[in-house]
What we know:
The chain contains nine helices and 24 strands. It is of the alpha/beta class. The chain folds into two domains: 9-193, Sandwich (Jelly Rolls), CATH 2.60.120; 199-444, TIM Barrel.
Amino acid sequence: MNMASPTGVLVNETFNHTKGTLPAGWLADGNAWRVTDGQLRVDAMRGEARILVGKPDWQNYEITTTATFEKVADDARWLSVVFRSGKSGTLPWSQFCVRFNGDQRNGAEFAVRVSPKSWRIRGSAKVARKWQIDQPQQLRVVVRGSDVEAFIDGQRVIESPFCLDRETGCVGLAANGCIARFDDFRVRRLPPTTPLSKMRLKRCEVVAHRGFSAVAPENTLSAIAQAIRAGATGSECDVRRSKDGRIIAMHDETVNRTTNGKGKVEDLTFAQLRKLDAGSWKHKKFAGERIPTLDEILAAHKDTGCTAVVEIKVKDIEDQVIDAIRRAGMMNQTAVIAFDGDVVREMRTREPRLPCAWLCGKSLKGTPAERADWIAKQAKEYKTNMVDLGYSMLSRDVIAELHQRGLVVWAWTVDDPVVIDALMRWGVDSITTDCPDLIVRAMDKMPKHSRRRHR
C-alpha cells in the first residue's frame, strides 16, 4: 500500500501483497474481512460490517474501487464506499451505498450514519439495473468540501452539496446482508477547500411550515400561535376554496388526512368543513380545533411581527386572496407563494405591492450558473424576483448565482440542523421548517442586526 505519496495518491491498494491478513493500516470493526486471492472479501450476511483506512484529517479526495456481490440475503442488501469517518468509526460517517437491486427509488444512496440505528439520506437515485452475482462494478466517489459526486461504472448517479456532518475523515468500505469482494482500492488527494465551519453564519427569515407543525396540527390557529410564540418571522399556510366559495386552510385536496372527515375540499361547504375536528389526529389536547378561514389566519398574524405566508393551492382564487389581504390591512405583512407560475403572475399583475414567490422542487442538471439561469428565466416569466426552492436544489454556488441575478432565495422544507446551518452560511434569505425553534435558537446566539424582509 502506498500512502501519502508525492504524486497525490493517498492509498493505492491492490490486495496482492497480503494473504489472509489485512493490509497494514486497515482497521476492521469485526472478523468479517479477510484478503484472499488478491482481493478483499467480506461476509456480512448477518449484519453490517465496515473497514477503514487513512487519517481523520484528510479533507478532499477521490475514491475508486471495484466491487462485486457474491451472495445476497435479499435484493435490498448493499455494499458501500465509506468516507468522512472518524479513525475508529466514530459517528457521524458517510457512505455511497449500492443496493443489489438498483432498480428501485433508493437503488443508490448518499447516506450519513448519525446514530447506531439511524441514517440521514442526503441523496438517492434509481440505477435502473439489478446487479448479477459475480458481476464487477467500478465505484467512484469524489468529495470536495461539502460536495459529493458518486459514479457507477463511469456514470454519475448521485450529486449532493450536503456532505456536511464531518469536514474531514478516513475512508473505507462497508457491506450489509451480503458476501462481497473488493479490488484495487485507490484514494487520490484533491486540492483543499475552505471548510464550511470557517464561513460566517448569516441571519435569515424563519418560516414555520404550516405553522409550527412539529408541535401543533398543521394549518390551524394553534399552529400559527405556536409559530409566533417560538419567534418565527413568518408562518406558512395552504389555502383552498370550499364548495360555496370560502377560502380555508388545507394542504391536501381532501380532508381525510388531517381531520375526522372525508371528501374533497371543493365538494364540501364551509359549514360542513367547519364541523370537522382538525386537531385530534395530532394529539388529543388539540381536539375540537377547527379549519380556519383565510380571514382568521390573517387576523392571527396581524401586528405580531410574524409574516403570513399564504400558499395558494388552486387556481382562480387570486382575487379573493388579494381582497382578504386588503381587507385585513395586511399588505405589508403578507407574502404569497405558489407552485403554479400562472398564479404567481396573476398575483403580481393584480397587486404588484404584494411579495410573491414561485415554488419549485425540480431536480436540475448543469452548472450552478446554468441552473440559476433557468430559475431566473422562470421567475422573470412569472413577474417575480422571489423563488422558494426545495432545499435539495440549492448549494453555496447556486445561491450565489441566484443572488447575482437579483433574486431573493427561500428554501423549503428543512428540519435537519446540519443542512439548516449550511444554508445559513451559504446566505439563503429564508428557510421554511417544521421546527422554527431550531433556527431561532441559532440566530439568538448571533450578533443582532436588521432582518431581511420578504421582498
